[in-house]
Amino acid sequence: MQKRVIVPKLDDVARVAGVSTATVSRCLNTPDRVAKTTLDKVMKTVEELGYTPHFGARVMAAKRSSTIGAIIPTMENAIFARGLQAFQEELHKRGYTLLVSSSAYQPEIEKEQIRTLVARGADALLLIGYDRDPEIYEYLRKRNVPAIVAWAYVPDNDLPSIGFDNRNAMCRLAQKVIELGHKDIAVISGVIEGNDRAYSRLEGIKDAVRQNGLDVDRLKVVETDYGIENGERALEQILTGSTRPTVVMCGNDVLAVGALRHAQNAGLRVPDELSITGFDDIELAGIVTPALTTVHVPHREMGSKAATELANLVEGITGSGSVELETKLQLRGSLGSPVR
Amino acid sequence: MQKRVIVPKLDDVARVAGVSTATVSRCLNTPDRVAKTTLDKVMKTVEELGYTPHFGARVMAAKRSSTIGAIIPTMENAIFARGLQAFQEELHKRGYTLLVSSSAYQPEIEKEQIRTLVARGADALLLIGYDRDPEIYEYLRKRNVPAIVAWAYVPDNDLPSIGFDNRNAMCRLAQKVIELGHKDIAVISGVIEGNDRAYSRLEGIKDAVRQNGLDVDRLKVVETDYGIENGERALEQILTGSTRPTVVMCGNDVLAVGALRHAQNAGLRVPDELSITGFDDIELAGIVTPALTTVHVPHREMGSKAATELANLVEGITGSGSVELETKLQLRGSLGSPVR
DNA sequence: TTGTAGGCGTTATCAG
DNA sequence: CTGATAACGCCTACAA
């Protein structure tokens, strides 16, 4: 005996409630335009039957999905978690559902994910950073899919951006580092290819170095994928060099934590023998010992502003355009003056 | 002048390639059943036109979406990140897309998310833990949506589960703690209502306490939401009590890190004056100083096994049923013998 | 305020 | 191997 599965549909609700399918549809989508008594009756049978509208059908008929997609480089560490949470909360308030997927920092995968999300009917997209194949921007324009860029502020980009000036923020931190007396600076940077945040942050450091009359060529830069272990390895590599730096500036907190761990395993006192800085101010930064000096980024604010902006774009409300958010130096124990 | 957006559809591809829509569809879905020359021709125009199939339409016609949904309690901390990443990688291999949403540990939201994912045509669902409104299980059965439970092992549940025995694992850890000589044990537990993992872990501690002839009633238990700050506050509360425990066992690593932080801020030496244990062995556990003694959970294995099982269920391959995975005590610096 | 009916883009069945 | 054509479940003018 086969047990057939019966999923109630609009017709069923209509029949049971004794109205037309159009009315049921209206009850669900534009309750205002339905007589209160009808509405009650219909909603009750919807409840009774456990009816849920079929998403695919709805998208096809309505040509919008009330869905917004986000492609983030990774879910593995906390860099994007906070912002995304706020993003999702705000979207929920506006009646949108969030679809998240991760690209593992690989441009090809990102491209694929974008297509997938668009195919699924995403009404708009949230992207991280702006450095990507121009083809993608063209694709989005052609399909008329609104999108914005977060985690970076680029006023003159194809897309509006909501974020902060990575270069300037890192420059200010480097400035501070130099003020403290550091001259031998090493950098552990994220992979720059395809990652504008990593690039800008490195440039920010160079800016500060130049402004202070130091030699950019003396900067030791190691480029590596994000990850605690990569941070460890990178510092290990740096320490094998002939002159030991007095400070290591890292492209983000995850790398910095790795560097910190390696320094401690190598028996270096932080910050006396080696100072370490990060970027992002994720929760981790305040937890390690010594706590990490880093750049604080307003994750939640960024997330919710992005959500508002995207929802507005979808609904045809004129967006407020790009928004630059403030970052703040977060000075903590991992940065000190060099001890000679 | 209005710029009309033209999204190529199957018809367009068919027309340009000079074949029927059916053939184009076949090229995309079952390339084997198409003459190679036709296939090449079609794929080329697909490429040229930048055609992407419309997901909603596809779902409606095919009655399956090759999509699997996962509802996790939170994205904010790393507890689920690893496992989910593995889950997604395995699904990808099998040709499925993952849809993630988070319930913020709220049963009502979880219920809503489940309905949403089902409405979107998810072919199957991954749920965390088994303690939820039975109505949900009935709903899934009615709609014939395969689902499994992860992060817990419960052989006799409605759904197959892939996970570990939280109770036994925590019991073993508590056993170890007691062996080291601890008698005054405090517990910082996650909120138990609606969270079977939290419940089982607490019970596991009680088991060990009883087995060793200690008094369960002497156990100080504080229940709190997950979160580092909550862990801090919980320990603060515990320390105001008349007798200070020699060890605090926490429901997970996040709480434990919070407790650790508070202990350090309060000037307590860990583990000499106070030992601390966690659960999950997230990356964070190995990073704090001292490193956290905790229970190692095979996140990635759990994720990929869950993916395999779910994909099998969707494809009608007989599932291998519930799978119990092994956990392992991860002894590190935060646990020591009580110093009197 | 409510009902009727056409169409949204694909897949799958069934002939050819 | 390929081509018509009927669903799929819902929304939305248009009409009443």
Q: How is the secondary structure organized here?
A:
The structure is a homodimer of 340-residue chains.
Chain A: H1 10-17, H2 21-29, H3 36-49, H4 55-62, E1 67-72, H5 81-93, E2 97-102, H6 107-119, E3 124-128, H7 134-143, E4 147-150, E5 161-163, H8 166-179, E6 185-190, H9 196-211, E7 220-224, H10 228-239, E8 247-250, H11 253-265, E9 275-277, H12 283-287, E10 294-296, H13 299-314, E11 323-324, E12 328-330
Parallel strand pairs in A: 1-2, 1-3, 3-4, 4-5, 5-11, 6-7, 6-8, 8-9
Antiparallel strand pairs in A: 10-12
Helix pairs in contact in A: 1-2, 1-3, 5-13, 8-9, 10-11
The first copy, chain A, binds a DNA duplex (16 and 16 nucleotides) through helix 2 and helix 4.
List keywords for this structure.
homodimer, DNA-binding, 340 residues, four-stranded parallel sheet, six-stranded parallel sheet, elongated, 2 domains, Rossmann fold, alpha/beta, 13 helices
Walk me through this protein's architecture.
The structure is a homodimer of 340-residue chains. Chain A folds into 2 domains: 67-165 and 299-326, Rossmann fold (3-Layer(aba) Sandwich); 166-297, 3-Layer(aba) Sandwich (Rossmann fold), CATH 3.40.50.2300. In chain A, strand 6 (185-190), helix 9 (196-211) and strand 7 (220-224) form a beta-alpha-beta unit. Chain A has helices spanning 10-17, 21-29, 36-49, 55-62, 81-93, 107-119, 134-143, 166-179, 196-211, 228-239, 253-265, 283-287, 299-314, and strands at 67-72, 97-102, 124-128, 147-150, 161-163, 185-190, 220-224, 247-250, 275-277, 294-296, 323-324, 328-330. The radius of gyration of chain A is 25 Å and the shape is elongated. The first copy, chain A, is of the alpha/beta class. The first copy, chain A, contains 13 helices and 12 strands. A 6-stranded parallel beta sheet of chain A has the order 2-1-3-4-5-11, with helices on both faces. A 4-stranded parallel beta sheet of chain A has the order 7-6-8-9, sandwiched between helices. The termini of chain A are far apart. The interface between A and B is large, with 47 and 48 residues. Chain A binds a DNA duplex (16 and 16 nucleotides) through residues 9-11, 19-23, 25-26, 29, 33-35, 38, 53-54, 56-63.
